[in-house]
Please model this.
Amino acid sequence: MAVRQGLDTETVLQAAIEIADVQGIEQVTLAALAAKLNVKTPSLYNHIKGLPDLRRLMSQRSLQDIKAAMVDAVIGKSGEEALLAAGFAYVNFARNQPGLYDAMAALPDLEDPQVKEAGTQVVMFILRLLASYSLSEEDALHVVRGFRSIVHGFSSLEMKNGFRMGLERDESLRRLLTTYLRGLSVTS
Model:
């Protein structure tokens, strides 16, 4: 079977991300993807193993991109300032790429080695940001879990239009993260 010139796994993945970000993750189907790429659905199998494989690739990319966004945001910062920047980068990622974020939030296969490694890299990055707090390994992992719960919860509520009051959302996020992070100073 001939492979369409210029079509590769990355092109297929990017097209799926565009569909997800504009129409929602549930609209990412092989038929929709084939239509967007102007190919027949069976042609996609030259580049992906099917919809579960595509979802896995999207989840892995989301984790990689969210880590990259946090890394960029913390350059030149440390301590609480770095953690605030990482939290805002996380939420802004969800704002700017809602479909890709949903792909990460769904985590289709937690045991997939590539998805697992991408997730581990996010956790390790946040653990490095927490180094100045002198927490035990277990305490630091609990803090990472709490941090993720805050930014994921905030992102999820915002994406579902859960904040309808006329308050500035970034100010709410700043206060939420600051309160959480200042609590770490008391416990460390």
